[in-house]
Design a protein that fits this description.
83 residues, mainly alpha
Length: 83
C-alpha cells in the first residue's frame, strides 16, 4: 500500500485526520476532539478484548464507564498542551 510506504503521505494523512475543517490549521478543539475519540476507541478496543473473556458483560461496562468518566480530565490536560 502506497500510504504505508511513503513517509510524506503518512504525514499528510495524519495532518488531515486532525484538521477536520480543512483550513490547514490544527486548532485546539480539533486536537482535543481527536484525542478524545482516540481515548474512547482505546477503551472500546480494550472492552472488546475483555468481552471475549467475560460472558456477563459486567467488566466491559466497568471499563467503558471508567474510560468515559476520565474524558473531562483527559480533555483538560490536552487543552493545556495548547497554552
Amino acid at each position: 500500500m502506497q500510504l504505508l510506504n511513503n513517509k510524506e503521505m503518512r504525514i499528510v494523512y495524519s495532518f488531515k485526520a486532525f484538521d477536520k475543517d480543512h483550513d490547514n490549521i490544527i486548532k485546539r478543539h480539533e486536537f482535543v476532539h481527536f484525542l478524545e475519540e482516540s481515548w474512547k476507541c482505546a477503551f472500546r478496543t480494550l472492552a472488546s478484548q475483555v468481552d471475549e473473556q467475560q460472558p456477563d458483560g459486567h467488566v466491559v461496562r466497568d471499563i467503558n464507564d471508567w474510560g468515559n468518566k476520565q474524558v473531562p480530565l483527559m480533555r483538560s490536560q490536552a487543552e493545556k498542551m495548547f497554552l
